[in-house]
């Protein structure tokens, strides 16, 4: 496939104020009190009560989960592959989450920060110091939510003059890295399936365990999502997904709960799929 025409690289960057501050004085006094080395521990105080930042943290966490779920690994710098077919849905949701995130931190900074600082005086007692708290204008700069989108590089993507021998070497190295990234992306998709199928087998194999509808729901969700993330068009991944549809998703949760024979058959079929995936994952190493 022409990956450059069918996918982009996305990088999510979220910055947040942690509201934590190392108190060197308290850390030193604690070490002295317990007759310990100065480097034995560090006391980090909460400048603002943890729950006051929970909404901002919740939105940031939701964005990271969505980003990871709807893309696959690309490089060590945080870049992930986003298939073009998934681009509109991805950008629509990330734009919505960015607006939600920006509204939450602005409300915190503009409407609540000053009063929360006053509450901190009483909460922290002698550990309170005005200098620990940034001005509102400075605090605003600590929040960031950006999604950078880049084209997938190709072996011709260099703009320097090279000797013919160097040109071949550079192209070969880049093509090798591209292939390694595609392999890692495919392996990530298999690992997602392995996780949910293993959990399914664990539950259906134990007659005393509670079988929840979500066990099949989580599998079905991946079966719908992963073909869109299969940027390498890996035929073995497609084969596994087909097997899951035919051998696991044909059951209703209630039937699995009530019929021991169905549970046994479903567990055996799922085990066979796991064995099949294990061979594929080893091939990708």
List keywords for this structure.
6 strands, four-stranded antiparallel sheet, two-stranded antiparallel ribbon, 10 helices, alpha+beta, 285 residues, 2 domains
Structure description:
The protein is 62% helix and 10% strand. It is α+β, with helices and mostly antiparallel strands. The protein folds into 2 domains: 3-151, no CATH class; 164-284. The strands form 2 sheets. It has a 4-stranded antiparallel beta sheet, with helices on both faces. Strands 2-3 form a two-stranded antiparallel sheet. A hairpin with a 6-residue loop joins strand 4 and strand 5. Helix 3 (54-69) runs antiparallel to helix 4 (87-124) and helix 7 runs antiparallel to helix 8. The protein starts with a helix and ends with a helix.
Question: Which structural category do the helix and sheet elements fall into?
Answer: alpha+beta
Strand content: 5-15%
For the record, give the distance between the C-alpha atoms at the N and C termini, rounded to a whole number. 21 Å
Domain count: 2
Number of helices: 10
Rg on CA atoms, Å: 26 Å
Mean pLDDT, nearest integer?
90
**Helix share, percent:** 55-70%
Strand order, main sheet: write it out: 4-5-1-6
Oligomerization state: single chain
Biggest pleated-sheet summary? 4 strands, antiparallel
Report the uncertain regions: none
How many strand segments? 6
What sequence of helices (H) and strands (E) makes up the elements? HEEHEHEEHHEHHHHH
Short note summarizing the structure:
The protein is α+β, with helices and mostly antiparallel strands and 285 residues long.
Describe the secondary structure blueprint for this structure.
Blueprint: H1 3-6, E1 7-15, E2 20-22, H2 24-33, E3 44-46, H3 54-69, E4 72-73, E5 80-83, H4 87-124, H5 136-140, E6 144-151, H6 164-205, H7 213-229, H8 235-247, H9 253-258, H10 260-284
Antiparallel strand pairs: 1-5, 1-6, 2-3, 4-5
Helix pairs in contact: 3-4, 6-7, 6-10, 7-8, 8-10
């Amino acid at each position: 496939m022409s990956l450059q025409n069918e996918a982009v690289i996305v990088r999510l960057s979220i910055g947040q104020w942690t509201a934590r501050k190392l108190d060197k004085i308290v850390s030193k006094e604690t070490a002295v009190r317990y007759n310990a080395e100065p480097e034995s521990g560090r006391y980090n105080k909460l400048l603002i009560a943890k729950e006051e930042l929970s909404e901002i943290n919740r939105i940031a966490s939701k964005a990271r989960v969505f980003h990871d779920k709807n893309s696959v690994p690309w490089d060590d710098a945080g870049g992930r592959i986003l298939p073009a077919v998934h681009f509109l849905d991805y950008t629509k949701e990330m734009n919505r989450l960015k607006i939600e995130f920006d509204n939450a931190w602005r409300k915190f900074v503009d409407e609540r920060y000053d009063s929360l600082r006053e509450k901190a005086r009483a909460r922290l007692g002698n550990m309170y110091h005005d200098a620990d708290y940034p001005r509102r204008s400075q605090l605003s700069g600590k929040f960031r939510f950006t999604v950078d989108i880049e084209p997938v590089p190709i072996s011709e993507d260099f703009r320097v003059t090279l000797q013919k021998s160097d040109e071949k070497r550079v192209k070969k190295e880049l093509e090798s890295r591209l292939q390694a990234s595609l392999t890692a992306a495919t392996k990530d998709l298999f690992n997602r399936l392995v996780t949910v199928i293993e959990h399914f087998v664990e539950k259906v194999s134990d007659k005393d365990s509670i079988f929840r509808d979500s066990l099949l729901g989580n599998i079905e969700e991946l079966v719908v999502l992963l073909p869109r993330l299969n940027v390498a068009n890996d035929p073995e991944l497609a084969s596994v997904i087909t097997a899951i549809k035919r051998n696991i998703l044909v059951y209703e949760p209630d039937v699995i709960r009530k019929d021991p024979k169905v549970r046994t058959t479903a567990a055996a079929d799922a085990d066979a799929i796991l064995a099949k995936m294990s061979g594929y994952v080893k091939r990708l190493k």
